[in-house]
Write a structure and sequence with these properties.
With about 250 residues, this protein is α/β, with parallel strands linked by helices. It has 2 domains: about 55 residues, Alpha-Beta Plaits; about 190 residues, HUPs (Rossmann fold, 3-Layer(aba) Sandwich), CATH 3.40.50.620. The protein has 6 helices and 16 strands. The strands form 5 sheets. Strands 5, 8, 9, 10, 11, 14, 15 and 16 form an 8-stranded mixed sheet that branches. Strands 1-4 form a two-stranded antiparallel ribbon. A hairpin with a 2-residue loop joins strand 6 and strand 7. Helix 5 packs across helix 6. The two termini are about 25 Å apart. The relative contact order is 0.16. It binds iron/sulfur cluster (SF4) (2 copies).
Length: about 250
């Protein structure tokens, strides 16, 4: 799926910019330009009065899903400190990784965040992928999506867990679109089916206020909100190092 501006039709009215729920459109030289934060929701296609935006289906690449393994947790940090939900997700991810029989990894973005690696290992990560750059110091949709999507393409996690924070709620859908995969928002429970080893998720069916989180799978994406301490205990477990495995890898 791709969302494109038909330049010849665009009159520069900015209506699409005001209506995009993901702030993914900007004006350049009086033409609308779709950014990488686009989730493909289609709102701008409907709103443009000049039929200047189209949504097209791209040919789907055939992906060998058997290459995808490991559970990843997005290690959200703000001002150099890990968000509490990260420990919670590592607790939940540990259970999933052990049931599947794979590694529990984290992906961390920021500027000068190497000091957080020990903390992530202490809370159970087996491996850490991290990217450091001034542009990643604070969350920016485009930059974080690009870096993490590249990492997902290269290292192929089976499941990605994100906290249901403002950042997780923004990043999860963007990654799901880029990875051409599903996203389950507001999960309150994740478990592995004993027979087929596929993930099963629980989310509230009505508008109840749950603290849940998100997950992406194959690569699935999920956004698991916090559930009053019922997910993960945040206790330090110390991740086992497996022979031949790296512990941390700079992206
Ligand atoms: S709404 Fe349509 S015509 Fe107006 S700026 Fe956006 S794409 Fe161009
Ligand atoms: S498809 Fe949705 S997210 Fe993408 S640019 Fe249009 S309104 Fe924004």
């Amino acid at each position: 799926m791709a969302v494109n501006v038909i330049k010849e039709n665009c009159r520069g009215c900015s209506i699409c910019v005001k209506n995009c729920p993901f702030d993914a459109i900007k004006m350049e030289n009086k033409l609308a330009v779709i950014g990488t934060g686009c989730t493909g929701c289609g709102v701008c296609v409907e709103k443009c009065p000049f039929h200047a935006i189209e949504k097209t289906e791209e040919k789907k690449e055939l992906v060998d899903l058997s290459e995808y393994r490991d559970v990843w947790v997005f290690a959200e940090q703000r001002e150099g400190a890990l968000m509490p939900v990260v420990k919670e997700l590592l607790g939940e991810g540990r259970k999933l990784a052990d049931e599947i029989g794979c590694s529990l990894c984290t992906v961390l973005c920021g500027d000068q965040v190497e000091g957080l690696l020990d903390e992530l290992f202490e809370y159970g990560a087996d491996k850490i992928y991290f990217a450091e750059h001034k542009e990643l110091e604070s969350y920016r949709t485009d930059a974080y999506t690009t870096v993490i999507h590249d990492a997902i393409k290269t290292y192929k996690p089976e499941i990605v867990l994100l906290g249901a924070t403002h950042i997780g709620r923004d990043l999860g859908p963007c990654l799901a679109v880029r990875c051409n995969t599903g996203l389950t928002a507001d999960c309150t429970r994740l478990e592995i089916d004993k027979l087929d080893k596929k993930i099963k998720q629980t989310r509230p069916a009505f508008g109840r206020k749950f603290n849940g989180n998100h997950y992406l799978s194959k690569s699935q994406a999920a956004d698991v909100h916090r559930t009053s301490g019922s997910h993960g205990n945040g206790q330090k477990t110390g991740g086992p190092e497996r022979p031949g495995d790296f512990r941390s890898r700079k992206l």
